[in-house]
Structures are given as structure tokens and as C-alpha cells.
Amino acid sequence: MKVLVTGSNGLLGQKLLDHYKQFPEVELIATARGADRYPFPGNYTYCALDITIEAEVNQVFNETKPDVVIHTAAMTNVDACELDQVNCDLLNVKAVQFIVNACNQINAHLIHLSTDFIFDGTHGPLHENEKPNPLSYYGHSKLKAEQLVQAHSNSWAILRTVLVYGVVKDMSRSNIVLWAKNALESGKSIQVVADQFRTPTLAEDLAKACALVAAQKATGIFHISGQNFMSIYDLVVQVADFWNLDKSLISMSSSEGIQQPAKRPPITGFQIHKAITLLNYQAHTFKEGLQIVDNQLKSLHHA
Ligand SMILES: NC(=O)c1ccc[n+]([C@@H]2O[C@H](COP(=O)([O-])OP(=O)(O)OC[C@H]3O[C@@H](n4cnc5c(N)ncnc54)[C@H](OP(=O)(O)O)[C@@H]3O)[C@@H](O)[C@H]2O)c1
After folding, report:
1. Is the CB of 238 within 6 Å of ligand 1?
2. N or C: which end of the chain has fewer CB within 10 A?
């Protein structure tokens, strides 16, 4: 099987390269904007690919002819999307149409990544058939992309995920676990929302889920996240407990108390029964996830 990954420099992208090391029988094509930033040797071919350039998408897909495309690249900063809607549309919607068309031309199965931010957050954890109602521009763009995939792709799966955490080298964006750990380690006081609830997802678990879908060319929508439902405040307290950091630096806030350009859904989190049953997906507990991140921080430090 030949698998092409978009956004291979990103958090999920790099975790996919890690994952496929155990499967040398899979021919892997890593693609990302600019130079390859994966820091380890791997069994993959790298092609620079800016997904917003249609001709580049067509050229790379036609030359490499993958059986499966895992589309992780996106504009993932929710506030940046709110402030720069033109680029958000280009990356999260228009480029998805390029990828759908290119996959159709070569009969590739498309695995498209989406988000809990397509929901309005009135209740959770959510199953796959809940009605979307995004609150942010990012959420709108990702919902449009889902609709486009469902309407035009000949062979697709959509994997929605929630608050992904983990560590890779040269990350373009931090995540809540690393942000809280770094702030508390440097003695900074932080305000953390107690009225937003999630099921945080270990990046390795999400990569494994993508690979399970790829192996079966599974179709349809899957909710992929961790198994523990918690407020963001509780999440940060667990981070402090795990690394023995000063919890008195953490103060509780409401969403309204924190000025952010984009609105976040209060309650999301996912029910993951469908993925467990149909894909044999298994999620680590949040504590196990923190241990995995800790081990990786140590090995990246020595890399
Ligand atoms: N992280 C989360 O909490 C979360 C939650 C729900 C859903 N998701 C979804 O999961 C997917 C993967 O997210 P992630 O956490 O791996 O995000 P990430 O670490 O931000 O990675 C996204 C990657 O997309 C790349 N990219 C941006 N513009 C590009 C372009 N024009 N051409 C090619 N690549 C481009 C970025 O490249 P640079 O590194 O060069 O900037 C980055 O490496 C996304 O679709 C996201 O919407 C993520």
C-alpha cells in the first residue's frame, strides 16, 4: 500500500511518520510546505507540496499515485482563522477541493481530518450523528470542507478529533499540555477556563486511528479522541500534578474572562464507540498520554 501524508511537518504529520516506521511494507510519501522538518531517519520519500497550489497538488498526486491520502495540513490556529478569513478559506476549504479532485483522478481513498469545533458545544461527549453548528470561522471552514468531501469525493473517511496534544520537533504550534507545562515551569501565573470540556487526544492515538482507517480503506465519519472527559482547568491541574509543578499559579477563569478573537464551543468531547468497534481503535488514558509525552520530551532533548 502507498500512503501520502499532507502536512507532514505538523504534529499529526510527524506522528504518522513515526507510526509507519513499524510498517516498512507501506510505501510512504511525506509532503509539506517547504523543507522536510522530520528530525529522524525514516522509510519515506519527501516531496515539497503547498496544498493551496492546485497544479502542485495534481503533479505530486499524479506522479506518486498513492492508494490512500491522509490530509492533515490545515490552518489550525483558531484565532488566526478568525482574523484572516481569506487564508482560512484557501487552506481549509479551497485546497480541500484540490485534494478531493486529485484523489478522484487517481482513485485514491481520502482520509480527511476534521474537528469538534464544527459543533456549538451545548452538550457532550458527542457521537458522529450530532448536528453541526459552528461558532467560529475555523469551525465553519472545517464544516464546509466536510460537506465538500462528502459531496465530491469518490472514496472518503472523515476523522474528527479534539484538542490534540503531544510533542514533535520544530512544532509550528504549541498545544495545551506543553503550554501549561512550560508556563508553570517558568513560574508564570496562568488563567485557565473551567467552563470548556473536552476529551483530549494523544497525537499518537490519532495517528494510529488514521493508519487503521487507511489499512481498511474504511469509509464514513469517525470520532477519534481520548477516553477521559474533563474541563480544561482540570486538564491543566493534571499536567501540574504529573510534573510536580506549582498549582497555586493556576487560576480558574470563565470563557468570557479570556479575550480571544474566536468563540470556542463550551462542551464537546467525543464518544468513541464507533471507532473502537469498527476500527479496533484504542485510546490511552490522559495520564498514560502525559507519561508518553514526558518520555518523548527527554528523547527529543537528547536528539
Ligand atoms: N491540534 C488540534 O487540537 C486539532 C483539533 C481538532 C482537529 N484538528 C485537525 O487535525 C489536523 C492536523 O492538525 P495538527 O495538530 O497536526 O496541526 P498542525 O501541527 O498545525 O499541522 C498542520 C500543518 O499544516 C501545514 N500547512 C499549512 N499550510 C500549508 C500549505 N499551504 N501546504 C502544506 N501544508 C501546510 C503546516 O505547515 P507549517 O508547519 O510549515 O506551518 C503544519 O505543519 C488538522 O486538519 C486540524 O484541523 C486538530
Report:
1. no
2. C
* Residues ≥6 apart with Cβ < 8 Å to 104: 152, 153, 154
pTM of the model: 0.98
> Range of 107's domain?
2-167+201-227+269-284
- Distance of alpha carbon 71 from alpha carbon 86, whole angstroms: 20
| CATH code at position 85 | 3.40.50.720
Please give the biggest Cα pair distance in the chain.
57
**Segment 177-206, tens digit of pLDDT:** 999 999 999 999 999 999 999 999 999 999
State mean pLDDT over 151-177: 94
Phi and psi for 33 in degrees, rounded to 5?
-75, 125
| Probe residue for ligand 1, chosen from 12, 92, 126 as the CB with the greatest number of ligand atoms within 8 Å | 12
Closest atom of ligand 1 to 9 CA is 43
Residue nearest to atom 18 of ligand 1 (CA): 10
**From the CA of 111, how far away is ligand 1's center (Å)?**
14
Res 282 pLDDT > 70: yes
Q: Taking a C-beta distance cutoff of 8 angstroms, is the pair 279, 219 a contact?
A: no
